[in-house]
Amino acid sequence: MAIKEKLVKAWLSDKDLEELGLGSAKTRQNRRAAGKEFLPFYRFGRAIRYKAADVAAYLKENRFDPQAE
């Protein structure tokens, strides 16, 4: 699934974020346990989900444009 298709979904899983290059699922689990997760997340029972809008905003804020320098 392409990045645009993933961001169209309302909720993203750890696996989706891993495919977007935002760290492995295990790393995200460790960061949540340590209170160091940099993206807000939601717990639905045992499932952890991230809002696609939050992920898109994070990607936009952390975009590096070498032409801008």
Task: Describe the fold and architecture.
There is one protein chain. The radius of gyration is 13 Å and the shape is globular. By secondary structure, the chain is α+β, with helices and mostly antiparallel strands. The protein contains 4 helices and 3 strands; from the N terminus they run αβααββα. The protein has one domain (3-64). The mean pLDDT is 87. A 3-stranded antiparallel sheet has the order 1-3-2.
SSE diagram, text form:
Blueprint lengths: L2 H6 L2 E2 L1 H6 L5 H10 L7 E3 L2 E5 H10 L8
Antiparallel strand pairs: 1-3, 2-3
Distance between the amino and carboxyl termini: 32 Å
Computed structural class = alpha+beta
* Fraction in beta strands: 5-15%
Strand order of the largest sheet: 1-3-2
Largest sheet: 3 strands, antiparallel
Query: Percent helix among the residues?
Result: 40-55%
Number of helices: 4
Number of domains: 1
Number of strands: 3
Q: H/E element string?
A: HEHHEEH
**Rg:** 13 Å
Key terms for this structure?
single chain, 69 residues, alpha+beta, 3 strands, 14% strand, globular
Précis, in short:
By secondary structure, the chain is an alpha+beta fold. It is built from 4 helices and 3 strands.
